Amino acid sequence: MKKLLLPTLIVAMGFGGAYAGSKVSKAMPTYHIEEGQCVEVQQECNEQPGPLCTLNDDGVTQLYKFKLNETTCSTALSRSN
Predict the structure, then answer these.
(1) How far, in Å, CA of 22 to CA of 67, rounded?
(2) Is residue 60 part of a domain?
(3) 11 part of a folded domain
(4) pTM, two decimal places
(5) Label partner for 24 (CA 20 to 30 A): which of 15, 18, 33, 45?
(6) From CA 19, how far away is CA 64, in angstroms rounded?
(7) Per-position b or e across 54-67, b if 16+ CB within 10 A of its CB
(8) How many CB atoms lie within 10 A of CB 12?
């Protein structure tokens, strides 16, 4: 019984490490106002205080966390470091 415990534990740790390493970081859905519409984009931002998160394409368009309705975005986000 003891001879099986250590190899089983090592294999389980290996699977756990492989699973943890395989998780890919996905950008949270973020939103911006485009031609009066709140449009979703995938870009890394966070909710911590700091410089405003802007659209990578132009560096000016502010990004938000929520889409309240078709024409309103809410809760400004900060840049991810």
Answers:
(1) 30
(2) yes
(3) no
(4) 0.60
(5) 33
(6) 31
(7) beeeeeebebbbeb
(8) 10
Q: Determine the Cα angle at 51 with ends 49 and 56, to 5°.
A: 125
Question: Within 10 Å of residue 71's Cβ, how many Cβ atoms?
Answer: 10
| H or E element at residue 45 | strand 45-46
Distance of CA 11 to the CA centre of its chain: 30
DSSP helix/strand/coil, 72: strand
Q: Tell me what percent of the residues of the chain surpass a pLDDT of 70.
A: 65
Residue 42, pLDDT score: 87
7 domain-assigned: no
Asked if residue 51 lies in contact with residue 78, where contact means CB atoms within 8 angstroms, the answer is yes
In a domain, 70, yes or no: yes
How high is the pLDDT of residue 79? Answer: 86
Domain span at residue 55 reads: 30-79
Least confident of 11-15, 29-33, 45-49: 11-15
Is the pLDDT at 14 greater than 70? The verdict is no
